[in-house]
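Encode chain A's predicted structure.
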Amino acid sequence: MASTRPRYEKEAAQWMEGLGMETYLPLVRKIRKYRSRKKVVDLPLFPRYLFVRTSLQSESHIKILRTPGILGLVSFGGAPKPVDDIEIESLRILVAGGSPLTVLPDLVEGRWVKVVDGPLAGAVGVIKEVNREKMRLVVNITLLGRSVSVLLSPVQVEVLDL
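Encoded structure for chain A:
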């Protein structure tokens, strides 16, 4: 997986395909409102990321890194992190299905989050409990030495890197 410059995913994919590399850029159809009209546009499901099939050899990494719009490879511990083929195939099936897709943050207990939607927008707290069945989470917001818990939808929060 490669990271790209903002709004440069499509161009980077075209460059790489022109160089003979296999890429996958999952796109979702969205309606964007402009001043006096609405327009249907295809936007990346994962902004600033592009899936690239490559060998683990350094020559292919250099080729990717020299592609216009590419900032780097997604790595952990200094080594590129491969994505399983079955995950990519599942993603292709989900995108091709045409149902509305929402990318949710990785929500685990103890992570700091910021509320980005709803009447509590701007509040920061710690995830206390994640209930996957109801897709709700409880965020503890410490206030004057006390905790206040509130139920939120995962789409209302963004994970903070603290």
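The chain has two domains: 2-96, 112-159.
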